[in-house]
Amino acid sequence: MTTADSVAGFAAAQLDPADDTWWRSAIFYQIYPRSFSDLNGDGVGDLAGVIDKLGYLELLGVDALWLSPIMRSPMADHGYDVSDPRDIDPLFGDLEVFDELIEEAHAREIRVTMDLVPNHTSDQHQWFIDALAAGPDSPERARYIFRDGRGENGDEPPNNWVSIFGGSAWERVTEADGTPGQWYLHIFAREQPDLNWENPEVFEDLEKTLRFWLDRGVDGFRIDVAHGMAKPADLPDMDVEAAGLLVNRDDDPRFNNYAVHDIHRKIRAVIDEYPGAANVGEIWVDDNERFAEYLRPDELHLGFNFRLAKAPFDADAIRDAIENSLDAVHSVNGTPTWTLSNHDVDREVTRYGRDTREDDAETSDIGDIALGTARARAMALVEFALPGSIFIYNGAELGLPNADLPDEALQDPVWERSGHTERGRDASRVPLPWEGTEPPFGFSTNPDTWLPMPESWTQYTVERELEDVNSTLSLYRTAIELRSERTEFAGDGIEWYGAPAGCLAFRRSEGHLVCALNTTSEPVGLPPGELIVTSSPLVDGMLAPNAAAWLI
């Protein structure tokens, strides 16, 4: 590694260590650093930009930040290809700036968590460089998953696994003598070789990484591909026809192997030495029993459940997603998590705008924005009314849609690996608009931002939305404030009300807050109670179409 493996003597600013269950009801705010705020003018967001906007995040009312990858990386996959897990990539700053961010955030009582990528490294990581130089059967190669090929002269990959980004999950190397050699596994991009978690050296190094950041005051980690890491020993072939780009299933041998739970127990043992620290795992597992296994008391604190984000804007589908998410954690007394978007999926405004039942609606790749906005605002109230932890993707509070990007602007590796058939995730990663009337809207002093910003985003700037009491930002601020201060949000359960077709209503079991949602195209009557907030104005005293309300 290029940096010290410890930070002996570093005095990290800490929040109350006795508050070791803060994460059970926390509102996390995901910062995609390259798109949040650029203070040095290179067109890419940075940590100094995050520090500069901490006042905004405090005003919004969030409890914790989740920083998407900021570790040193060649950026083949925007930071998820880590070459040194114990350093900050110069694109974002350095350790001194990071330490300042921790201190300043903690001073505002905002916790800081960060992405951890244990499934793989960058192909520029020193370990992988050493593995290529060392040759077959070496201790260096044993840190990764190298195999001889099948067929005559080993010319075929060791199995039929495909990459999440498209193409084979195997890459053949050229040995030091110039001859075709072994193959290495990369479930993601070829620049992201998978680590061999059967090798004890791999966890030993991860433990150094965990302690390095925890000693600096980090409050926890979001573990990337938390259902990955462990692989079946015989590497059996997979059902390729059932797989897709950025998709996996519960019976996919590339993921969700039982040995992964031993890895999480080891990680948890380290985390538990740091009072108040918590882990949340990215878990793409549909079966509730298998999902719950990740949330046993000696494994993850939280697990991302994506059912609500994947549900269409339909009352029955939304209720099913909520019930399934609650059931998934019930058996282990776990805490549910709720999110409507992140850096890997379409923004909710676009998603709900495409999910339209109006035959004459004019939609495009970014959807019917007016319809999508109304529905996204309604779903925000549904999400905030539920018990558990909330994850907001930066820009969701502004009501941002996907951006309609030209082909030449796309940077997601999915675009190239798919042969330009899949556009990837860039449309939801465009920089945030802060102020002004033209790009780059205060995001940077450099108009050449890493992804272009639509000129139409004038209406979405933080500056404008702070001045508009009816803006999506104002709705988020109101909802977050009510959620954090009102006793009506107490309790871990919900009770369902009877509701008209196309609608749903539930009540918090202890605090008795009522949330009602109308997914139809007609106004409906409200449940009894005092109205405290709505996502859209009432229509003749009734709940508007594509709207939600809270009552007490």
From TrEMBL:
Composition skew (Basic and acidic residues), residue ranges: 417-428
InterPro entries, per this entry? GH (IPR017853), GH13_cat_dom (IPR006047), O16G_dom_2 (IPR045857)
Pfam families on file? Alpha-amylase
Q: Where is this region: Disordered?
A: 417-448
Keywords in alphabetical order, please.
Glycoprotein
Coiled-coil blocks: none
The record's section on CDD domains has: AmyAc_OligoGlu_TS
What region holds the Glycosyl hydrolase family 13 catalytic domain? 30-429
Q: Which GO terms describe its molecular function?
A: alpha-amylase activity; isomerase activity
Q: Which family does it belong to?
A: Belongs to the glycosyl hydrolase 13 family.
The name this protein goes by in its record: Alpha-glucosidase
Could you tell me which species this protein originates from?
Gordonia otitidis (strain DSM 44809 / CCUG 52243 / JCM 12355 / NBRC 100426 / IFM 10032)
Gene from which this protein is expressed: aglA
